[in-house]
Design brief:
The protein has 371 residues and is of the alpha/beta class. Helix content is 29%, strand content 14%. Strands 3-2-4-5-6-7 form a six-stranded mixed beta sheet. Strands 9-12-13 form a three-stranded parallel beta sheet. 39% of the residues are buried.
Length: 371
């Protein structure tokens, strides 16, 4: 008998871009943390949608709530992980990797790559934490995706959808991992089993360059599914920019999402219009939303539409008198600032020259705006 206090996650979901395809290349997208955390991730949302619309069967899997894990199955059809052709792991935090071996084993997939054969699914990992440092996963996965997926999304989807054998997939991934001629050649896939990628080669190993999309206006990064069971309950999330203009020495986003790229406001508003029939709650995602170059036009359009807007973070030194009142009028109640250190000199040393006067002015504007 089902427990009455357990949410019916599937029933409560609203699909904006449609459900999973039932075509070819059976994939399960694994997020090694809870449903609530996974469905708050734009990586999960956009990868699930992007593969589905390209004809790849894509289901989801999240860390089970019980410990130790019993059986680990897909969210949509209850299929064991071992019943898929591909296990795609996306991860934002290294600590989540501690769940991965147990999830694979409970799903019928040997955790170590050396223990898997042609009857087992291939395990491919990506996400910010993987781009930052894939080496801890080298014995677990067949491939690591380094950087952003959009530049090679079409050939990857075709490979997952159409490949007739594991050998063909391995050859295809190897082709994607080999840089073309020239310093901007195609790369982005780390295959730990290849001799030329072996860690013991040290400086002699073949380097895998980070992939990044030069034109982010060619695609949208947004929620495909709206659900009340996330940190951002019933909120449509959309990425307005990627990368950062700042030079904070400690920041991972600066290293793995360089260079800074922004989407034009008209494109964002058109995408948001598709979501407004389902929810008026819109979350703008970026490393620093206050650095968005067309903030006035974007926020003006959102206010005209009656959207309830929230933002991921702002920089105190780039807060304007127009930004915070717009947030206050749209219903946001909280503002996040991150000074990082206690004095102006310490902030200067870590590359974040935010002054105490910047913080004070931002707080005064926030209070005036009702935040």
């Amino acid at each position: 008998m089902a427990r009455s206090d357990v949410p019916d996650y599937l029933h409560d979901e609203t699909h904006i871009t449609g459900g999973p395809s039932r075509d070819h290349g059976r994939c399960v997208l694994v997020f090694p943390n809870s449903y609530e955390a996974g469905m708050s991730s734009l990586s999960v949302q956009t990868l699930y949608s992007a593969l589905s619309v390209r004809g790849v069967t894509c289901e989801r899997c999240f860390r089970p709530p019980e410990r130790p894990f019993g059986t680990v199955r897909s969210f949509e059809t209850g299929t064991l992980l071992g019943g898929f052709d591909f296990v795609l792991v996306t991860s934002s935090f290294e600590l989540d990797w501690l769940n991965l071996p147990a999830m694979l084993e409970a799903g019928g997939v040997p955790p170590l790559r050396s223990e898997r054969t042609e009857i087992h699914p291939m395990v491919i990992a990506g996400g910010p934490a993987v781009t930052c440092n894939p080496e801890p996963l080298a014995d677990l996965v067949d491939a690591c995706w380094i950087g952003e997926i959009e530049p090679l999304l079409d050939p990857l989807a075709a490979l997952l959808r159409d490949a007739a054998s594991r050998e063909e997939v391995e050859e295809g991934l190897r082709a994607l991992s080999v840089p073309a001629d020239g310093p901007t050649g195609r790369a982005g896939v780390y295959l730990p089993h290849l001799p030329e990628h072996a860690p013991e080669l040290a400086d002699e190993r073949t380097r895998v360059r980070r992939l990044f999309a030069e034109d982010v206006s060619a695609f949208s990064t947004e929620s495909a599914i709206i659900t009340p069971h996330t940190t951002f309950a019933n909120r449509f999330l959309i990425e307005i920019s990627r990368g950062c203009r700042r030079t904070c020495k400690f920041c991972l986003a600066r290293g793995i999402y360089h260079p800074f790229r922004a989407r034009p406001p008209q494109m964002l508003l058109e995408r948001i219009d598709q979501a407004l029939p389902h929810t008026d709650r819109v979350g703008l995602v970026g490393t620093a939303v206050s650095d968005y170059p067309w903030a006035g036009e974007l926020f003006g359009g959102l206010l005209q539409r009656g959207a309830n807007v929230s933002v991921s973070s702002v920089r105190a030194e780039s807060v304007t008198e127009g930004l915070l009142p717009a947030l206050g009028r749209s219903g946001q109640e909280m503002l996040t600032l991150a000074p990082e250190a206690g004095t102006d000199e310490l902030r200067r040393q870590i590359g974040k020259p935010m002054t105490e006067e910047d913080v004070r002015q931002a707080l005064e504007l926030a209070l005036t705006a009702g935040l």
